[in-house]
């Protein structure tokens, strides 16, 4: 960057709010009418041990590309920088007469701390720093029990949320931006090296189109085709029953408030039967996202450690082979394998299947939920510290409002219940396609001639089960009894 600017400028710092619409900090920056540097800093060190994984970096690359195009259409451009965020700001401050810096909060413990310190440092240099809540429906400190403490159970938390006022309007996307100061040089996007070095992303490319315009299109599609049947279809991995908005929400390409208001509007204006019930069930799921952030803020140690401390004593196993089989989708349990392959191929997995595979890792294989959470972190396009921690501690029985440890999912029954025709399994485990439906969730029970005519040789082109579920269940309960003593 170059010293050419004489009048004051502002900086808008894009983070996990990669959108122009309903972006409170951006709106505040634009109100000043000063020239604006729309900045994104790729700061791997700042993310600590939760550096976005491969699939998230893939998404981020495309999301930044799309945001840049949106800005260009409005007479601006995205300025990309790399490195320690504080150093990047100091460098910019040495070149530009900066008046104000604007950003929306992130709530990951390390980032929250860094931002607090950064704000103090910048303010001590006479810069006006304004930060806003842009990625949650309810500012995290606003939802507390009467006595001022945090919640650990979802239902009362959500009831309390619903008593709060929610803005009924979201601000639209600004049509014109002030100019970017001349010579504000951006690094080329490729320089950030977010794209995979080895091309493993064919499935991601086929499945997703990151960016805020796509997020809005996805929301519209879901409102029209999915909302009214959401309460029933949301548990069916063999159907397009959920919104698939999670990566867009994680990167802030759409705000939860935008979704909230669109659902409320649909309730009032759509005559389709089931819309009100669908909308309530769906918004409650957004409520789980709020709950995840509530827990992350009040219990910042939970991405690494269980909320229920007795689980620190759990005798987790560390044998590599079962973990490998789980990661590769080679456990011999079709619903588990389909889920893990869906994750690897598309960067996403259906929520019901996330619960089943997580239970299998933690309870059948006795591998720690932290191992599972790390694998998801690397492979999910929607990897989100709050939601991933919540999901894994829920499945592991060690978190807030978690499934009790002794409730152990049976992967065969879960498969039969939620993928009754085996459509989901056959999509991601093509070697099982010819197997009759009655055996699809337990191929090892199929008679030899049936396996033969389906082209399956167990142990060769599809694995035999790596563990007997009923023995695994007994072993899990024995291990659990040890930590209860
Ligand atoms: C072990 C495990 C790990 C998970 N890891 C993540 C993660 O890293 N990132 C992530 O966004 N979600 C995670 N989830 C929650 C959930 O599986 C996904 O949010 C959901 O599958 C995303 O698909 P969707 O957008 O179609 O969901 P929809 O059913 O359409 O729900 C709409 C939105 O509500 C939120 N939501 C839905 N269910 C949950 C939930 N159980 N907890 C928190 N928020 C929820 C999400 O933001 C989602 O996009 C995890 C769940 C489990 C069991």
Structure, described:
The chain has 485 residues and is mostly helical. Strand 2, helix 2 and strand 3 form a beta-alpha-beta unit. Helix 13 packs across helix 14. The protein has three domains: 127 residues, 3-Layer(aba) Sandwich (Rossmann fold); 123 residues, Serine Threonine Protein Phosphatase 5, Tetratricopeptide repeat (Alpha Horseshoe), CATH 1.25.40; 176 residues, DNA Cyclobutane Dipyrimidine Photolyase, subunit A, domain 3. It is globular, with a radius of gyration of 24 Å. The protein has a five-stranded parallel sheet with strand order 3-2-1-4-5, sandwiched between helices. It has 20 helices and five strands. The structure holds flavin-adenine dinucleotide. The site of flavin-adenine dinucleotide has 28 residues, from helix 9, helix 11, helix 14 and helix 16.
Tell me briefly what this model is.
The chain has 485 residues and is mainly alpha-helical.
Please give a handful of descriptors for the protein shown.
5-stranded parallel sheet; Serine Threonine Protein Phosphatase 5, Tetratricopeptide repeat; binds flavin-adenine dinucleotide; mainly alpha; Rossmann fold; 485 residues; 46% helix; DNA Cyclobutane Dipyrimidine Photolyase, subunit A, domain 3; 20 helices
């Amino acid at each position: 960057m170059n010293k050419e600017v004489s009048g004051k400028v502002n900086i808008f710092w894009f983070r996990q709010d990669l959108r122009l619409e309903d972006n409170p900090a951006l709106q505040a920056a634009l109100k000043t009418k000063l020239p604006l540097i729309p900045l994104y800093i790729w700061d791997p060190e700042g993310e600590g041990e939760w550096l976005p994984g491969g699939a998230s970096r893939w998404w981020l690359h495309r999301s930044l590309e799309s945001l840049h195009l949106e800005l260009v259409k409005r007479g601006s451009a995205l300025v990309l920088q790399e490195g320690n965020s504080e150093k990047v700001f100091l460098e910019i401050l040495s070149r530009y007469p900066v008046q104000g810096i604007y950003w929306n909060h992130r709530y990951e413990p390390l980032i929250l701390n860094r931002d607090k310190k950064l704000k103090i440092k910048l303010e001590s240099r006479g810069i006006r720093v304004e930060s806003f809540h842009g990625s949650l429906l309810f500012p995290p400190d606003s939802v507390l029990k009467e006595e001022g403490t945090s919640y650990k159970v979802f239902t009362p938390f959500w009831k309390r949320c619903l008593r709060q006022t929610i803005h009924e309007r979201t601000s639209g996307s600004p049509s014109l931006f002030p100019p970017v100061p001349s010579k504000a040089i951006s690094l080329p996007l490729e320089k950030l090296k977010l794209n995979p070095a080895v091309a493993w992303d064919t499935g991601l490319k086929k499945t997703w189109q990151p960016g805020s315009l796509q997020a809005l299109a996805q929301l519209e599609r879901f409102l029209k085709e999915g909302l009214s049947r959401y309460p029933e279809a949301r548990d069916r991995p063999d159907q397009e029953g959920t919104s698939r908005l999670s990566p867009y929400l994680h990167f802030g390409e759409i705000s939860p408030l935008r979704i909230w208001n669109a659902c409320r509007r649909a309730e009032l204006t759509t005559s389709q039967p089931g819309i009100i019930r669908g909308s309530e069930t769906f918004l409650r799921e957004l409520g789980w996202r709020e709950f995840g952030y509530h827990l992350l803020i009040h219990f910042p140690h939970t991405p690494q450690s269980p909320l229920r401390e007795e689980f620190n004593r759990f005798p987790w196993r560390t044998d590599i082979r079962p973990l490998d089989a789980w990661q590769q989708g080679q456990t011999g349990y079709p619903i588990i394998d389909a889920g893990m392959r869906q994750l690897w191929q598309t960067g996403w997995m259906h929520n019901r299947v996330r619960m089943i595979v997580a239970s299998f890792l933690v309870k059948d294989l006795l591998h720690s939920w932290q191992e599972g959470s790390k694998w998801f972190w690397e492979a999910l396009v929607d990897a989100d510290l709050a939601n991933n921690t919540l999901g894994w501690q829920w499945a592991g029985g060690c978190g807030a409002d978690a499934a009790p440890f002794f409730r152990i999912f049976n992967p065969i029954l879960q498969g039969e219940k939620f993928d009754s025709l085996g459509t989901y399994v056959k999509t991601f485990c093509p070697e099982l396609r010819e197997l009759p439906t009655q055996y699809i969730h337990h191929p090892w029970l199929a008679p030899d001639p049936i396996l033969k005519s389906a082209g399956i040789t167990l142990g060769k082109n599809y694995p035999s089960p790596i563990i007997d579920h009923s023995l695994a269940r007994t072993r899990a309960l024995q291990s659990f009894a040890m930590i209860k003593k």
